[in-house]
Each structure stands twice: as structure tokens, then as C-alpha cells.
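Repro case for the chain-ordering regression, as requested:
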Amino acid sequence: MRISVLNRDRCQPRRCAYECHRFCPRVRTGDETIVIGEDHKPIISEELCIGCGICTKKCPFDAIIIIGLPEELGEQETHRYGVNGFALYGLPIPQRGKVTGILGPNGTGKSTAIKILSGSLKPNLGKGAPPWDEIIQHYRGSELQGYMRGISQKDIRTAQKPQYIDAIPKAISGSARELLQNLDERGALKDLISKLDIGHILDRDIEDLSGGELQRVAIAACIAKDANFYFFDEITPYLDICQRIEVAKLIQDLSKTKTVMIVEHDLAILDLLADTVHIVYGTPGGYGVITTPKGVRVGINQYLRGFLPEENIRMRQEAIEFEVHAPRPQKDIPVLAKFDAFVKKYPEFTLNVNGGEIRRGEVIGIVGPNGIGKSTFVKVLAGIIEPDEGAVSPDMQISYKPQYITRCDETVRDLLRTITKQFGTSHYNTEAIKPLQLEYLLDQTIADLSGGELQRVAIAACLSRKADLYILDEPSAHLDVEQRASAIKTIRRFAENNKASAMVVDHDIYMIDLLSERLMVFDGKPGVCGEAFGPFEMHEGMNKFLEKMGITFRRDEDTKRPRVNKPESKLDRGQKARGEYYYQ
Ligand code: ADP
Ligand code: ADP
Ligand code: SF4
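-- result from build under test --
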């Protein structure tokens, strides 16, 4: 079985010479394997195509994907977005009383699956517009049959937390209180407000909320509704680790009586939250296959290794590997800069920073709750704001990626070209463009990018500036696991190759563990006062940080990945008693 997919956004017939049509050997022998449609874009016949792949190679915009798939998949086809559109195979199975996770790269059909399960997209099984009877019959013998019947009869009420919360203020006006009161269908609002700690921001306008506040309001809005099926498309962006764990608890409580599905790329949180996971593999933008459910530990381990044994599918050549690092001997590493102690005061917040030193070529992770002064610290270091006491004069150039990235009307190409003369060289392509998957975004306007695309551009822009120290604030937000792993490699390589250093503020423990050599820890009372300690060696820093948070991690026996211990479990209590918050 073979499918041909045309990426309609990339296809630009005005800027090419119809290479696909000109070079297709079948067309050259006179048949109609490729014809040009009314919109001037090619239509590829999957029946006539012989799969030589010439059109894929010749298309200057890489807009065509031709993929050979196992014949058996045909029976699992769930949806096809029209002729030469994206194809989805399989569906996740909603299970009452459980949290079902979906784990897979962006662009492989997770949202499409959710649209189908929430009733907003009628699946076409890849063949026109079949009636509901045929769809229900297609799922006979599986749990999905009854579910599909429910959707067809509009018996299933759904509630969803969208992926990109940044879009909420554009669609909804008024205060957070007004929004939530209108949705309080289960009488759960009071409890949600208290557990999500959003009482003090309820009278603020939605558009004035920070990312972390908006994320919690959006989660409260979804849980407050009375539905049968709840779907959360990423809960972690902009939330700190305690908030992530609190949300995980709320969603687990909800799942006791409801059906809950979640897409999440923070694997520590997915691991804690979900009972089972469906892995999605395929070619982003081409096709996606949703596996049958796996136990969450096994599923995440298979995903990290990049091989699904039951399906016999290799998803990735290299495994994502965790190492338990021994600290590097300090005397071997030259110091890049020292920063002295300083104080920064806002009317309602004071930050105290104890001095420290940054070593050349190292990546320092920065951890701490939200509202504790991490961004204030990096802004002072970057010279964007002045301290009130003490002087920060590390004699070095700093390049800074803020947490919230501004959109503008420039194209990605123009932005990067003005930042670095290296743009266009093969070195730059290998070091930045390819690993951050920017090849096909270059001609897009920054204002039109999705959250994940914008993040990758912002990481590239930050690393492309000439600097001694690169500071990146929450680079993991909106990236999938593959993209996080690539971003980690890119940041580390940039630091090493340019003999520069990097500081990374992030709440994804996997990102921090894989990326950092040392750790700065922020502690205090969020929104009131904060104090910065370190940098420490990783193990010491993590222990200090997690002790403050009251959270313990252990390492998975097989993959060495960190796993959150369930709060109050035997492991959690045992590690706390031994003072081993980050067990190696
Ligand atoms: P994910 O949630 O895994 O990121 P999506 O389900 O959003 O993936 O999208 C998978 C692919 O389906 C995308 O690459 C996109 O090209 C395609 N797609 C999504 N919605 C539509 C649509 N309405 N029409 C045509 N293609 C679509
Ligand atoms: P974090 O990065 O750890 O989330 P921030 O450094 O962004 O924390 O903020 C710490 C505290 O300082 C917050 O309470 C925030 O409201 C306050 N703050 C940050 N910037 C300003 C500012 N320009 N004016 C007044 N208060 C500010
Ligand atoms: Fe033609 Fe198919 Fe070969 Fe493309 S892959 S050039 S459509 S035969």
C-alpha cells in the first residue's frame, strides 16, 4: 500500500517549474499519475504511482511525501484529509476511570484523533463520506464501537483544554471570574480555584494574565464543565513543577468518574499522570499510526529507545539516553565569568542573588517555582534591567531568549539573516537549521508560526547571536519530545563549539537532567521574595531543589530516566527519610 501526501502549505506552484510533473517517469510515458489541479497544485494518483520517489526529490519545497505502508494498515484507516491529504490510522481508546495518554511527535494526527473522539470531526475511514452505520460497523468488536454510536447520537458531551492558550484572550474577553462562573457546571469551581491557586487573579482581565496563570484558568475551565469526555492538549507549558503535579492530581481525581485523555510532552508528568499511553508514530504532515495502549512506564521507555517491539517499528535511529553524570573535576574547567551578589527590588517583590561563577562551555540549569525571580535574575545578568544593590558587571556578551516570544511581520529567513553572517553556510545549516527543523519555515512570517515553530525559531535566533553566554528561558514550551531532544543537543553543541556557556530556565526535569552540568536553585516565597543559590553540581542542586518542593524522583532501572514518586507512596516516604530527593 502506498500513499502520496502533498503538503499544501509548502507547495508553491508560482515559484517552481512543476518539477514533480515534468520528471515523473509515469507522466513521461503518457499517463496521468500527476495532473495539475485548478489551484495549480499537483494531484497524485495513488493507483498509478509506482513509488519511485523522483517527485519527492525534485520538488524544491519538499512538499511531496510518498510512503509505502504495510497492507494491513489499510484496514485501520480512520481519516484522510481529502485527496493527497494527511492519513490517520487507528484511534486511541477512551477508558472510563483511567487517564489515557497520547505520546507522539507534532504533526502525526493527535489533535485529529481528538477531534474525532470529541465529535467535531466525522471520520471518513479514508473513503469519501461513509454514513454513521458504516463507521460504527467498522469498529465492531472494539470499545470504540459503543463510543462511536454515542458520538453519532450526540450522547457524548466533551470538554477540551486547547494546546495554545495564547489564543484564548483573542477569543474571550472579560475577567477570569466571569469566564469560570459561566462554566461551573459541576459545582467544583471553589475547590479548583483553591487547588490551582488562582483566587488572587480572578478579577483580572483574561488578556492581562501571565502564561502560567492563563494555563491554570484554562485547566480550571475545562474541569469545571460537566462532560463525559475530557481532553487536555498539553497541561505543562508555563507551569512550574509543583503546579504541574497539582494539575496532575486534579486530573487523576477527575478520571475516577470520567473519561480523560491527555497529550503531553513532559514525560515526567505524563508518567505520573497517565495509566496507559498510545504511542503515535509516522511522518509528521504525512501519516500517523496510533498504537494500541501500553502501560505508561513501558510505553515511555519504548518511546525513549525509539523502538516499538510489539509493532516492530523503529521510530528513531538513536535512543534518547539519560546518564548519571559524575561531577567534572573543577580544576580542569576555566571560568567564563563571575557574578557578584546583588539585590533587585520591585514594589512587591525582592530578589537576593548570592554570587557565583560560570564555567566556560558548561550548561547551567535554573530551577525554582514560578514568580520566584528567575526571569528577573537572567534579565539583570543580560543587562536588560539594573540591580538596586550590588553591581553586575560580568564582562561578557549575553544573548537572551525570553519566555514569552514576540511575534512580528518579518520572515524567519530575514530575521536570522540579520542576526548572523553565517546564515546560508553549510555549517549553520548543520548546527542550527536542520536540528531545529527550520528548513521549511524560512519563508514563513513569524506572526503566522505555531507555538512550537516560534519556539524553535527563537532558540535559533538566540544561539545565532555572537555571545559568551546564552540564556534561554523555558525552551521546552510547545516542543514535542523529539524536538526537545534536538534542542538539547543543539544548545550543548553551541556552548561547546563556541567555548561559550548557556543557562537554561526550564521546568521539564528531563530537559534539565539531559542538558545541565550544574544547577542554580531559586527559593523563597513566590511573588514576595526570592533568593538564588548555586550553581551546584547536579545531584546536590536537584536534591536541594526537590527538598524545597517536597517531591522525590527515582531513576528507571532500564532507561535511567528520572521518575516522579507518587506523593506519599512508600518510595516517596523512604527517600524523604533518607534525604535522597533525586535518587541516582
Ligand atoms: P498533531 O496534533 O499530532 O500535531 P494534527 O492532528 O494537528 O497533528 O495534524 C496532523 C496533520 O494533519 C497536519 O500535518 C496537518 O497537515 C493535517 N491537517 C490537520 N487539520 C487539517 C485539515 N483541516 N485539513 C487538512 N489537513 C489537516
Ligand atoms: P519567575 O521567572 O521565577 O517566574 P519573575 O522574575 O518573572 O519570576 O518575577 C518575580 C516577581 O517579580 C513576580 O512576582 C513578578 O510579578 C515581579 N515582577 C517581575 N517584573 C516586574 C516588573 N517589571 N514590575 C513589578 N514587578 C515585577
Ligand atoms: Fe511519479 Fe509516483 Fe514517482 Fe512521484 S513517486 S515521480 S508520482 S511515479
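Ordering looks correct now. The chain has a mean pLDDT of 92.
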